[in-house]
Amino acid sequence: MASASVPLSVLDLAPIGAGSTAADALRGSVRLAREAEQLGYDRYWFAEHHDVASVASCSPSVLVAAVAAVTERIRVGSGGVMLPNHQPLVVAEQFGTLEALHPQRIDLGVGRAPAADQAVAAALRCTDAAEFPGQLGELVRFFGAPQQNQGAGTPVSAIPAVGHRPELWLLGVGPRSAQLAGMLGLSFAYAHHIAPENVGSTLAAYRSAFRPSGLSSVPHTMIAVGAVCAESDAQAQRLAAPAALLYVRLRTGDRHRPLPSISEAAEYSYTDQERALVAKQTAGRFVGTPEAVRAGIDRVVAESGADEVMVTTQVAGFEDRRRSYALLAEAYALDRAAVAV
């Protein structure tokens, strides 16, 4: 069996399935992170979403703390913290604390994605997206020596962050974020599962803009892809169907229902417009046998030149989700601890 061509990691949204609760999803995520470490995955990141009934990953820093406490090797982080929702000082204090407690194991991925709607934005006290570059620069400075902020008009120190800087990443789906990451010398993660069509040009823009910094001396990229693995293509398609229906509901403004069950998704009758939405959603996702999924991922890696791959698997049932990650780990011959597939 071929060995892994790039490091593989996990992006988790703590999906809440029909008939389950947020508590079930969160406990499942902690359990899955321990499994991912044993399977040989490199990183385990949590996304930030608010007021979406199918997603329990509202507080990445809390989940990072929970997972880092029960694992030993795997890097744990955010994919990402949406900086307009937070004050840079607080983010620096949180992730500086995490890095101090778990040295060289914490990642801080940040993004600029807006809140789901104006009501959520108001509840979060979101700042304007135009302020994002300044917020990002402020966040980076908080992880430096105190005098860096003294001279930058911010005479405040994020005490736990000083000397405890996590690995910093900027997330994005277009050239604006890519160029900003490059100019600041940050690593860059591209959400291929959201916008597969722009991956090559966006990573090229990042590399072109990259300037070495104290954060990274060379450009470093990751792509996040959607994937569902099963023993057969038919079973994989069956497991992936609820995420497709969820996507349609989210795109039409219905975010207050959990991830549908497999039977509900199988029985749903799509309109032509909804089928078009599903086709768009599945373009950034690989569904099938482990061999087929690996072939799809390898193709995108070859085309984009990405250094790492992060996989998100939107399947509600814990065992089906664990099995999907285990099969993919086997397809890539990851360096696994003794774990039964």
From TrEMBL:
Residues 9-307 form the Luciferase-like domain. One of its GO terms (cellular component) is cytosol. To bacterial alkanal monooxygenase alpha and beta chains. One of its GO terms (molecular function) is oxidoreductase activity, acting on paired donors, with incorporation or reduction of molecular oxygen. This is Luciferase family oxidoreductase, group 1. PANTHER family: LUCIFERASE-LIKE MONOOXYGENASE. InterPro entries: Bact_Lucif_Oxidored, CmoO-like, Luciferase-like_dom, Luciferase-like_sf.
